[in-house]
User: Fold these one by one.
Assistant:
Number 1:
Amino acid sequence: MKHLPLLEQRKIEAKVLAPLIRAFEDEFGREKTHTLVGKTIETLARGEGKGIAQELEGTPIEKVASLLPRFNEGDALELDVLKQDASCYEFNVTRCRFAEFYKELGMPELGQLLSCNRDFALSEGISSELELERSQTIMEGASHCDFRFRVKNPPPKNQD
């Protein structure tokens, strides 16, 4: 499925996983099911991040910046870049077609579990020196997603 835009991949996954997740919720409870699904998605995302780390050149921040177009294929996202330098990449997602899709499907809470849940583990997989801070998502009802990628121990700035 690598040749498909990421949004299309998530749509296919959701149409298969949603009925399974609902069945597991009925059988084992929502909390237990979501915990297990969340851990599984994080493990997959961490592995994807490690693959990306090997595939892409550059610093962790450069890898995140070069990865963003993959997430945005098919105009899946609208974003405002706030700051980008050697130690950070900060942006807000102001429109998310992933969130729109999960809402149309009638399962916005699964969007958080199946899509947004990947971001932190993916970052960890890309580099242990990469830190992601995000306090809100459109998927959870916020006006925007606030992504703040930073290098944990940035090199000192020149004092010239």
Number 2:
Amino acid sequence: METSDVSKEFKSFIDGFSKYLAGYSGDLPKQYENAIIAIIKTEIAQNMANHGRYDGSGTSLFSSGDIQWKELKESTKRSYKSKWGDEYDPQPTLDRTGALRQSIEVVYKDNLTFELSANTPYARVHQYGSEDGKIPARPYFVLSKSALNKIIDNVIEGLEEYTKSALV
């Protein structure tokens, strides 16, 4: 599994936050790791359910906002309507078959490092858009400020618990 650009961005954020954690070289207690993973997965699910939640400035993990993804092209809408009939949803959901959603993994590696990945051939194109510009970016790896605050709270609480247990 290859680490995505989003994973690197998240690691960069955590690395910056880690300046405040000098001397810490352990892992978070498991409950905090799991809580952070759940926060990230919930954010991704909400992005898909809401047809996007980004600020329109780019595809950064931290570009949360209230802009939805660009509409599907008319030719794509016609194709989907003929394929799915009454089940057709004209919104760009990125979740028509569930394959992308099911391929998403959020894994705690160690030392406050999380890896985010999606293992479908089109995952990168959906996040960043196609190189030829024919498919627009529809970022789904985007975290809201609220989620970031929850993640930071979990890191702090986890470190407090770790510190207390280390002192006993």
